[in-house]
């Protein structure tokens, strides 16, 4: 979990159940701050759609005043979404995503 700004947090989940021949897959989510146990947070994230799935890492993330999120990522990409949304203070916020893929 990484705080992006006062209301937005970056979360990731990891799936390494494939064994030695299948790469570890990371799923990246944006959300408000989630509290609880690791299992509770994972369950809450699984109700959302990740904006990025792949075997790489995010090295930088920032949000502009117009709710555009810029992500710097390196590694293999399995899926990528140019929008994301989350609920904070009972209000849904929509984000536009831009990526720098290395």
- Approximately what portion of the residues adopt beta-strand conformation? over 45%
Count every beta strand, where a strand is a DSSP E run of 2 or more residues. Answer: 9
Overall average residue pLDDT: 91
Please outline the major beta sheet. Answer: 5 strands, antiparallel
Give a quick rundown of the structure:
The chain has 102 residues and is mainly β. It has one helix and nine strands. A five-stranded antiparallel beta sheet has the order 1-2-3-4-7, with no helix packed on it. Strands 5-6-9-8 form a four-stranded mixed beta sheet, with no helix packed on it.
Question: How is this structure best described in words?
Answer:
With 102 residues, the protein is mainly beta. It is 8% helix and 53% strand. The strands form two sheets. A five-stranded antiparallel sheet has the order 1-2-3-4-7, with no helix packed on it. A hairpin with a 4-residue loop joins strand 5 and strand 6 (68-74). The longest helix has 8 residues, at 38-45. The model has no long low-confidence stretch (mean pLDDT 91).
């Amino acid at each position: 979990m990484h705080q992006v700004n006062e209301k937005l947090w970056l979360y990731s989940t990891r799936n390494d159940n494939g064994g030695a021949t299948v790469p570890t897959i990371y799923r990246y989510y944006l959300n408000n701050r989630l509290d609880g146990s690791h299992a509770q947070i994972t369950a809450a994230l699984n109700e959302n759609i990740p904006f990025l799935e792949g075997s790489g890492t995010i090295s930088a993330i920032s949000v502009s005043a117009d709710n555009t999120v810029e992500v710097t990522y390196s590694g293999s990409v399995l899926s990528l979404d140019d929008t994301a949304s989350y609920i904070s203070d009972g209000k849904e916020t929509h984000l536009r995503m831009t990526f720098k893929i290395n």
